[in-house]
Predict the 3D structure of the following.
Amino acid sequence: MKLSFRWYGPEDPVKIEYIRQIPHMHSIVTAVYDVPVGEVWPEESILKLKKQTEDAGLHFEVIESVPVHEDIKLGKPTRERYIKNYQENIRRLGKAGVKCICYNFMPVFDWTRTQLDKVLEDGSNALVYYREQLEGMNPLTGELSLPGWDSSYTKEGLKDLFAEYEKITEEDLWENLRYFLEQVIPVAEEMDVNMAIHPDDPPWPIFGLPRIITCEENIDRFLKLVDKKQNGLTLCTGSLGCTKTNDMVKLTEKYAAQGRIHFMHMRNVKILEDGSFEESAHPSSCGSLDMVAIMKALSDHDFDGYLRPDHGRMIWGETGKPGYGLYDRALGASYLNGVWETLQKLKG
Ligand code: DNO
């Protein structure tokens, strides 16, 4: 298991030097953020990030994310250019030593929450998804913006995009994903890079937009679209695990055995009665997931991919990017280190 940590580059309020001080930290997870979605990342920008990472004593091997342009998801004729650019990004990143690229195939929006600063009982605050709040939200007003969302949409642009997705069924989205994978996986294979799709978060359709990377049946279908090791997963426990219908221990066990998990996002969530959920601290007792059993499934299969503590709460007065402060994620890393060490020792 290679412990890693997401870092948003020099603009991130969390300093890379601090990340290095977390015990057992292996690598930084980052991206080039100043290039519009779909364009080729300049080699200088990639090499600069690599240097910043290596100067801090960490490895530059994981990118999260190289975003997929909406024209690819929509299957528009213009996708050809964006797929070529995507292939070129894989080549450039592979050349710079990147081993794993995380991406997602969610229409329009990345991960979605309804409130970013819900004050919990202990005074910390966390990201939550309340069904009732979602019903009152209109994505077209542009009032909510999350760190994962492409902030370049104008209100008009969003409206047009929504109109285009009205014509797209789930089956179309599958077909467009297959078309994309058939062209990018061979390049990943050639460059020895593992592609790791992130599940949809939450794993159900929102705002009337289709979502497909949501459950075991669909992940099986995804893996078969191009049945190669390089066509793999970012298994995000908090995304898939925010519904009880996904058994995270079973899924981890299954896909680790198949060697298709390249990246783990470890996060705990508390599932509420009505299917809403709150992000919680990492230990099992704080949420609904059995984090130790998930780690054990990885350990049993000698998981040697990347793993990062995902979203933390905001604690100790820290402010910054929702979900991406230093303190609670560092506590999460320490907890995961402890669980992992115990599992390794028990294995003998
Ligand atoms: C949320 C993240 C996601 C993830 C993308 C991958 O915190 O895990 O935004 O980076 O879905 O493309």
